[in-house]
Design brief:
single chain, alpha+beta, three-stranded antiparallel β-sheet, 3 strands, flat, TTHA1013/TTHA0281-like, Type II toxin-antitoxin system HicB family antitoxin, TA_system_antitoxin
Amino acid sequence: MKLHFPIVLEQDEDNIFIASCPTFEGCHSYGKTVEEAMINIKEVIELCLEEQSIESYNQFVGFRELELEVT
């Protein structure tokens, strides 16, 4: 069985890539490259899968951007 998970990638002020999977609470990892961050988040997801049943996953709905005017 193949499962697909959404991954959110961000880059911090030190140019480190942070990968998060919103399907699981607290599922984050990082790497010096996007590829490294993806390998690392895969390992974290595999650990989360060992701890949680498929029925208890958060359902990813989508990504929205919110615009704020800051003065």
